[in-house]
Amino acid sequence: MKISFLMLMVLSLFLFPNGIHKSLASRPSVVSIGSILRLNSTTGGVSDVAIHAAVDDINSDPTVLNGTTLRVDTRDTNCDDGFLGMVQALQFMETDVIAIIGPQCSPIAHIISYVANELQVPLMSFASDATLSSIQFPYFMRTMPSDLYQMAAVAAVIDYYQWKIVTAIYVDDDYGRNGIAALDDELTARRCKISYKAGFRSNAKKSELLNLLVTVSNMESRVIILHTGSEPGLKLLSIANSLNMMGNGFVWIATDWLSAYLDANSSVPAETINGMQGVLTVRPHTLKSKMKSNLVSRWSSLSKKYNHSDLRISAYGFYVYDSVWTVARALDAFFDDGGRISFTNDSRHFKGFPLQVDLSTAILTLSENGELQRIHDKWLKTGDCSTDNTEFVDSNQLRLESFMGLFLICGAACVLALLIYFGIMLRQYLRHEQPGSAISVDAGSSTSKRSLRKFISFVDDRQPPPKKRRTMSLSRSSMPTTPMSNRPGTDIDIES
Ligand SMILES: *[C@@H]1O[C@H](CO)[C@@H](O)[C@H](O)[C@H]1NC(C)=O
Ligand SMILES: *[C@@H]1O[C@H](CO)[C@@H](O)[C@H](O)[C@H]1NC(C)=O
Ligand SMILES: *[C@@H]1O[C@H](CO)[C@@H](O)[C@H](O)[C@H]1NC(C)=O
Ligand SMILES: *[C@@H]1O[C@H](CO)[C@@H](O)[C@H](O)[C@H]1NC(C)=O
Ligand SMILES: *[C@@H]1O[C@H](CO)[C@@H](O)[C@H](O)[C@H]1NC(C)=O
C-alpha cells in the first residue's frame, strides 16, 4: 500500500513537473488590469490618475513584478444607467483582464458582484456600500472603508451633542439606502434615532428638491444628515441656502462625498463655499507614509499628464493607488508560487453551463452592431413621452391599422348574420300572411308601405315577453277548453 502510494507520487512528479521547480520563464510579459470609472466625475478623474500613477510606479520598480509589464485598460461608464453599465462591465470581463478596479458606482457593483464570482474576475471596488461583502461575494474586495465607519463617526457626533433625533436626506439608490440603514443601526445603538428619512432620485429636478427641503424644514428635528453623490448634494445645499436653512437653528452633516469633492475639485467658486459655511463633513483618515507624501508631491505633474489637470488628490486617490499595488503584489506572490494565467474562451469562464456562453456571445454581438443601444433606447429610455413618441413609431409596432383585417372579418360576419335573420323572418312572415293576402289587396298605392309596417310589427310580435307567455300557458292549463276548441284534431283524438 505504502509502496504503491510512493510510486504514484513519483509518477506524478514526472507527469507534472511544473509544480516542483518554479521558472521565471513562465511569467507573462504583459498583464492587463481593467478599471471601470465614471471619468467625468471628480472621483472618477482622481481614480484614473491614481491608477495610472500606480501602474507607472509598479512598472519602474524592479522589486515587484520583475519582467512583467502591467497595463491598464479603462472603461468609462454611466452610473445613471444600470443596464448599459452592467453590459459594459460584462463585456469587459470577457477580455483578458485579470482584475478590475471598480466599478465606481454602487448599483453597478451590486449587479456585477454576482457575475464576478462566475467569471472569477476579482473586483477591487471602492464602492463603500456596507452591504457588499466578500463573505457573500468571494471575488469582491472593498478597498475603501465601508460606510459603517463613517456612519459610526456621524452617530458619535450626534450622540456627543445629545441631539437624539435627526433627519436623513439621501439619494434613493443602493448606496444611499444602505448608508442610511447603517446610520440607523449606529444611532439606535446610541439610543438616538432618525425621525424622518427623505429619499430623492439621483436625477431629481430642482423643484422636487425644493419640495423635499420644505418638508424637511417643517420636521421636528433640525439636525440633517446628507448622504448623496456630489452633484445632487451641491444642488441641495445651494437650494437650502436660498431657503435660509443654513443659518442658526440648523445642523448639517454631510458624509464623505463633500470632503472628497472639495479636496479634489480645485475650481469650486467662492460663493459655493460661502453658501455651505457651517456644514460638517467627514473624511477617511489615511496614515502618513513615504509613499503617500511621494504621491502627493508628484500629483500636479501626474494630473497634467493624464488630462485631469483641474483635479487635486482626495482620499479616494490614496485608496485606488493602494488597490493597484495590492493587485501587483498579489500577482507577484501568485507567480512566485508557480501560478499561471490562462484565458480560455469558454470552459474557465462558464463552468459547463452552455446557455451562459450563448447568452454572453449574443450580448456581445448585439452590442457590437449597435443593436443594444437601439434596444435600450427603445424599451428602457425614460424621458418625455412627447419627444419619444415620434421615435417609437416603428413599422413593427401594433397600431390601429394592424387590426383592419380583424375589423373587416367581424363586420362581414355581423352583416351576414343580420341578412340570414331577415331572410328567415321574411319566409315566416310570407308563410304566415299567405291566407290573409287576398283581403289586403284593395289598398292601392300604399300597399308596400303597409305591408312593410305589417312585416315590422310581425317581427316585433315574434318574441313576446316571457311573462306574457307564462300567463298564457297558465290560462291554458286552467281553462283547458279554449285550446281544445282551437284544435279540432285533438278533440277527435280524445273522443276516440
Ligand atoms: C458626465 O457625463 C454625463 C453624460 O455622459 C453627463 O450626464 C453628466 O452630467 C456629466 N457629469 C459631469 C460632472 O460633467
Ligand atoms: C469642479 O467644480 C466646478 C464648479 O463647481 C464644476 O464646474 C466642475 O465641473 C467641477 N469639476 C468636476 C470634475 O466635477
Ligand atoms: C529582475 O530580472 C532581471 C532579469 O530578468 C534580473 O537581472 C534582476 O536581478 C531582477 N531583479 C530583481 C530585483 O529580482
Ligand atoms: C490627453 O489629451 C490629449 C488631447 O486631447 C490626447 O492626445 C492624449 O492622448 C490624452 N492623454 C491621455 C493619457 O489620455
Ligand atoms: C478566444 O477567441 C478569440 C476570438 O474568437 C480568439 O482570438 C482567441 O485566440 C481565443 N482564445 C483562446 C485561448 O482560445
TrEMBL record:
Residues 1-25 form the signal peptide. Gene3D superfamilies: 3.40.50.2300. One of its GO terms (cellular component) is membrane. SUPFAM superfamilies: Periplasmic binding protein-like I. The chain crosses the membrane at residues 403-424. Residues 459-496 are annotated as: Disordered. Residues 472-488 have a biased composition (Polar residues). InterPro entries: ANF_lig-bd_rcpt (IPR001828), Ionotropic_Glu_rcpt (IPR015683), Peripla_BP_I (IPR028082). The lineage of its organism: Eukaryota, Viridiplantae, Streptophyta, Embryophyta, Tracheophyta. This is Receptor ligand binding region domain-containing protein. Residues 49-341 form the Receptor ligand binding region domain. Keywords: Membrane, Signal, Transmembrane, Transmembrane helix. Coiled coil: none annotated. It is found in: Membrane.
